Amino acid sequence: MPPPRTRGTALRQQLAELRGPDVPAKALDARALAALAANPGCARRAILDGAGVDKTALASALGAPAAFGQSQFALTRGNAFEAKVKADGGAELLRLVHEKLDRSAEPPADARVPDLTATGPRGRTARTELELREATARPGEWTLLDHPMLALDVAGSPAFLEPDAVVVHPDGGWTVVEIKSFPLLDGSADPAKVGAAARQAAVYVLALEEFAARLGAEPDGAPAPYVRHRVLLVCPRDFSNLPAASAMDIRKQRAVTARQLARLTRIEDIAAALPEGICFSPERPAEELTAAVESVPAAYAPECLSACELAFHCRARSRQEGAVTTLGRPVRAELGGLTTVEEVLAAARGEAGDPGDPAVAALRRAAALRSEALEAACR
Amino acid sequence: MSLISTLARLEAVSTGRAQPAVTVRHRHLGDRPLVLVPLITAGEAGAPLGALVGTDRDAPRLLAVPQPRDRDLRFAFLAELAGIVLPYVDAYAGTVEAAERTETDPETGKRVKVEVELCSDAPQLIVPSRPGIDLLRLLGRSTRFRRTAEQDPEAPYPAPPRVPLLGRWLTHFGERARVPGSSLLLAMTDLLGRHWVTGQSTLEDQHLGALLAWIDPPEGVTGAEAALRAELERDDRGQLTCPPAGPATDPAFDNKLLAPAIERYDRARTALAAAQDGLEADDRLGALAAAEREIRDLVLSRTRPTWDAVWRGLDLLRELPEGARVEERWTRDRWSFTGHRDRVLAGEPPQPRRDDAVTAANKLATREREQARLEAQEALDDPLVMAGRRLSGEAFAGEVTDVVMTYSDGKRPSPRPLVTVRTDDRPQLGERTKVYRSLGGKPQSADFVADEEDGAYVVLRILDKMGRGKEPEPGSVPEKGDRVCFTLFEHEQRGGAKLPDPEETPWTHGGPPGEPALEAADPVTEEDVL
């Protein structure tokens, strides 16, 4: 057996041990993807997501529970909207795909909506891949894959992804569809939310491309199917719950994400640096878990608060250490080589630091100007 | 963020208390602001759940929508809100003073002064946080095109009479809030964040409770501890003791308390509808009222802490003296208010969904100009803000060490004194850079001539504001020993190039917009949520 395979098996074994015995792996959900985009350089996030650890449970076990939750109102409404969009064999959804992305094709009628149920993420991925292969081999037909499961290699271990839908066009091209419940008001939506949706869709596109490349490399000589770089975003129109769609060009997000993924420290390297016998199972006592989490370095920044379940834990640690990054990445960037609060204040007061260092000199000037202005105001 | 505020942030961390970011108050605060603490329903586009509204901190009006998905209840909420906001706005529309405005005479094309009315004060709305401003804008958008039964007897689901007008005013407030330095509609987190620097990131400053905890921590507790408590502390029912300032509610509140209460309300309503006789109906009406009261109590429990926090913030802000140029910016807000009042009185249609090219360009130009004005005025009003500009080389302060009288060439020589200033600042001066200082509130300009001893001495030539005579008027030229502060940025903003009238819009920008067509209301269908 070739060596990579052995290494892969060993890694999978190790990641399963990190997760804890009998704990199922968690798929990479939208929040984990957002966290990846917000903080690609965090080794802690990388290994926990790579091993499929349930970070919500872990954060609670550490005594710093995440503040994320979903209101059942939003959930009900989101599900109702998605069901409405996909109702009737996806007729409305396919109409929108045809109208916004592929007007030259035959209008969809009697599209195939294959059943994708299977057990476990691996089973579902295999099923999805089978159906994608099948659909691509049937030119002239529309196929809607409802909640397919895709696998993407993230830092050397497969991450499982679940897009809202993937559509196979009559020409064999694949399109990712994202269904969101924020409104498209007078043709425009909240840019932050659209951006998040685009980044999420870009990851799905990458996963599809990976599979398409594998299909293309098969010996039957068929060319690799192409994945469209314009995805369809479906939102409620204005104040109604009628669907409105918009094509999003995600080439930029795709390029950024691809680059980030390529640069990620290999999970096996992070895993190799871990001490023997650590485990992130929420069953373990809090002290042991804290030590385990501490054994992987984190790169906390305030952006983590909106993307990572472990953020409160990392923030508390970061504050304890007096790291200036807790105040924001721009703050950190301004202060040159000074990384802790006390270091900076001592330099500003003239008690420490090299006056020849431009960052220190600027700090001292800022401190002098500030106290001069405050004194002037007091007089 | 300048290094000075970064430093203040670090000091806040080490002292455990927020540090001043300014020395004066840079926003106008009226005597009677209308505070509005709205809540929305998660997942719906602009479906209000309730609000606390009022101008009296001890007597807020509670509005609640027991079933946010019900169109009639939502209209009732909006009508009630209109019943509070519109009389408040109208109270300011009536009191006017005479003012002058230059307008272009349509016949001669000359600029002439015309006498117009200017409201002597304007209403002021305060919401807890920036998403609150977005919500008001959204409510404005959702209601201003609605048709009342009077306007359109055929329309299905007519809106209550004053609701479209409320929408137009909310839209105006929302639009004005985008103009830098304006104070018609303010968010408390923005206000506090402008005036204090906390020991947490600006992202975390968006939490009103945590922000206030840093600025004004309870006795014996550091800002960091108090802020952490405000962010995370939950009571025995799993509810945040400091509820989010909204408009979004905490999911735990939605799932544990609100959803069951709404369900009980729905059941009570169904039971009432199914009542067989009057006696039974009476009983069930009582049950319905109880269910509604329960929801009102829930809404009150989530909004009251925020309401108190907003007023606490107002108290803190009022302790700061108002900046000298704040009044001038408020006058611009009064003009904006008067202008919209006139448009409403003249029967103009509601603001369109999309602006035409000229209006949009004008709005952008205004925002840019006001941004520059705000930055200049804040620096002139406040030595601490000026310190930031001095640090970045956009201004310098120092002592006058020498004044040499020179005169301009020409038939009538005018004074052009050369002033030498000793400074420790490092301004980015180039040849003939213009610099300005404030002289009795008016800018006096000077040219940079030379620097000596590696920038420690700066020689300037004063150019204006010295009177018409051969000798400068007393006090118009700095004297030896004076402390002076010059800026490299201009103090007053000139308007940009004039844009064509909308009727003259060139074809490159879509051409003339044509007759303003009355925009249709959003179509309503049975299944709509709003």
Largest sheet of chain B: 6 strands, antiparallel
Structural class of chain B: alpha+beta
So how many helices of chain A? 14
Which strand-content bin applies to the residues of chain A? 5-15%
Approximately how much helix is present in the residues of chain A? 40-55%
What is the H-and-E element order of chain A?
HHHHHHEEEEEHEEHHHHHHH
Shape of chain A: globular
Radius of gyration of chain A (Å): 25 Å
- Rg measurement of chain B, Å: 28 Å
Overall structural domain count of chain B: 2
- Give the low-confidence spans of chain A: 1-5
Mean pLDDT of chain A: 86
Poorly predicted segments of chain B: none
Strand content of chain B: 15-25%
Written account of the structure:
The complex is a heterodimer of chains A (379) and B (530). Chain A is α+β, with helices and mostly antiparallel strands and 379 residues long. Chain A folds into 3 domains: 3-69 and 263-326, no CATH class; 72-249, no CATH class; 335-378, no CATH class. Chain A is built from 14 helices and 7 strands. Chain A has helices at residues 3-19, 30-38, 43-50, 55-61, 72-101, 120-136, 191-216, 251-263, 267-273, 286-294, 311-320, 329-334, 341-349, 358-378; strands at 143-146, 150-154, 157-161, 165-168, 174-179, 230-236, 243-249. In chain A, the strands form 2 sheets. In chain A, strands 1-4-5-6-7 form a 5-stranded mixed sheet, sandwiched between helices. In chain A, strand 5, helix 7 and strand 6 form a beta-alpha-beta unit. In chain A, helix 2 packs across helix 7 (191-216) and helix 7 (191-216) packs across helix 8 (251-263). Chain A is globular and about 80 Å long. Chain A starts with a helix and ends with a helix. The model of chain A is unreliable at 1-5 (pLDDT under 50). Chain B is an alpha+beta fold. Chain B has 2 domains: 3-245 and 303-353, no CATH class; 383-487, Beta Barrel (Elongation Factor Tu (Ef-tu), domain 3), CATH 2.40.30. Chain B contains 12 helices and 15 strands. In chain B, strands 12-13-14-11-10-15 form a 6-stranded antiparallel sheet. In chain B, helix 2 (71-93) crosses helix 4 (163-176) and helix 8 packs antiparallel against helix 9. Chain B is globular. In chain B, 40% of the residues are buried. At the A-B interface, helix 5, helix 12, helix 13 and helix 14 of A face helix 1, helix 3, helix 7, helix 8 and helix 12 of B. Chain A: It comes from Streptomyces cahuitamycinicus. Chain A: This is Secreted protein.
